[in-house]
């Protein structure tokens, strides 16, 4: 499958979980992949090694997406190594499970800076540096459409991502660039399983019509579809990938 042959993709937060699967899925479809990480270089190198072992091309690049200068550097390195960037996947994110009452200023600022500012900085670079006909794919969350206690600050960030997705789609449409969001449900990632008690995990599993949590392998193929010509007529959309949870 070479739907993305000759394309270059940047995936923020690509070293683990959903991001890692997105990286390997894009590479399997023929794209050259820039695997971004913030701190875990070893995990990013492992993703690159898997891609290269399968015959693909990838590099890892350290960048903190909450910093505008780091996001510019991410595009700089991608262009130096692989040429013009065609696909941006804004996947990097942090979770926050606390009630609004007890959330501190510092905690709220952190989740906003990574989830909202990071996505904004990526789209702002893409506005002038992405190839015509390119693709921007943002990661949201199906929790946005659910009334879940302790999810308020996190859902606020993902609601912002969804609205920026719609506006940016209108702005980029004249250049043939599509902008969409993927909205996973509860997924078996280190981030989700490590931040929730077993009772809550079981409750989220039972909410899905298909009766299970998502797997990281459920997400990559959807991103490949949106990044390819097959998904070229959809833009400004939020695509739930949640097994019928919401």
Explained architecture:
By secondary structure, the protein is an alpha/beta fold. The radius of gyration is 17 Å and the shape is globular. The chain has helices spanning 17-28, 41-53, 68-82, 105-129, 152-172, 190-194, 198-207, 220-227; strands at 8-11, 32-37, 58-62, 85-90, 130-139, 178-184, 238-241. It is built from 8 helices and 7 strands. A 7-stranded parallel β-sheet has the order 3-2-1-4-5-6-7, with helices on both faces. The protein has a single domain (8-241), classed as Rossmann fold (3-Layer(aba) Sandwich), CATH 3.40.50.720. Strand 4, helix 4 and strand 5 form a beta-alpha-beta unit. The mean pLDDT is 95. Helices cover 44% and strands 17% of the residues. Keywords: Oxidoreductase. GO terms for molecular function: oxidoreductase activity, acting on CH-OH group of donors.
Summed up:
Helix 1 (17-28) runs parallel beside helix 2 and helix 3 (68-82) packs parallel to helix 4 (105-129). The chain is globular.
Furnish the topology, listing elements before pairings.
Elements: E1 8-11, H1 17-28, E2 32-37, H2 41-53, E3 58-62, H3 68-82, E4 85-90, H4 105-129, E5 130-139, H5 152-172, E6 178-184, H6 190-194, H7 198-207, H8 220-227, E7 238-241
Parallel strand pairs: 1-2, 1-4, 2-3, 4-5, 5-6, 6-7
Strand order of the largest sheet: 3-2-1-4-5-6-7
The helix/strand order is EHEHEHEHEHEHHHE
What is the CA-atom radius of gyration, in angstroms?
17 Å
Q: Regarding CATH, which class?
A: Alpha Beta
What is the CATH superfamily label?
NAD(P)-binding Rossmann-like Domain
Per the principal axes of the C-alpha atoms, what is the gross shape?
Answer: globular
Strand content: 15-25%
Structural domain count: 1
* Oligomeric state as shown: single chain
**CATH structural fold name:** Rossmann fold
| Poorly predicted segments | none
Question: What class, by secondary structure content?
Answer: alpha/beta
- Name the helicity range: 40-55%
Mean pLDDT: 95
The end-to-end span amounts to 32 Å
CATH architecture: 3-Layer(aba) Sandwich
Query: Helix tally?
Result: 8
* Strand count: 7
Instruction: Give a quick account of the main beta sheet: strands, pairing sense, barrel closure.
Output: 7 strands, parallel
């Amino acid at each position: 499958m070479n739907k993305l042959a000759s394309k270059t993709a940047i995936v923020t937060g690509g070293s683990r979980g959903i991001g890692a699967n997105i990286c390997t899925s894009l590479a399997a479809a023929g794209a050259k992949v820039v695997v971004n990480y913030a701190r875990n270089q070893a995990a990013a190198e492992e993703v690159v090694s898997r891609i290269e072992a399968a015959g693909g091309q990838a590099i890892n690049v350290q960048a903190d997406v909450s910093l505008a200068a780091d996001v510019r550097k991410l595009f700089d390195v991608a262009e130096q190594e692989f040429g013009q960037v065609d696909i941006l996947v804004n996947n990097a994110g942090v979770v926050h499970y606390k009630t609004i009452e007890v959330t501190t200023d510092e905690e709220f600022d952190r989740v906003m800076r990574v989830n909202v500012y990071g996505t904004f900085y990526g789209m702002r670079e893409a506005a002038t540096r992405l190839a015509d006909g390119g693709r921007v794919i943002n990661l949201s969350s199906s929790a946005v459409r659910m009334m879940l206690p302790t999810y308020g600050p996190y859902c606020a960030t993902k609601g912002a991502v969804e609205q920026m997705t719609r506006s940016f789609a209108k702005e980029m449409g004249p250049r043939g660039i599509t902008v969409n969001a993927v909205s996973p449900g509860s997924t078996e990632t280190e981030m989700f399983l490590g931040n929730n008690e077993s009772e809550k995990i079981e409750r989220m599993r039972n909410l899905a019509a298909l009766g299970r949590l998502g797997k990281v392998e459920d997400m990559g193929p959807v991103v490949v579809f949106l990044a390819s010509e097959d998904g070229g007529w959809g833009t400004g959309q939020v695509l739930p990938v949640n097994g019928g949870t919401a």
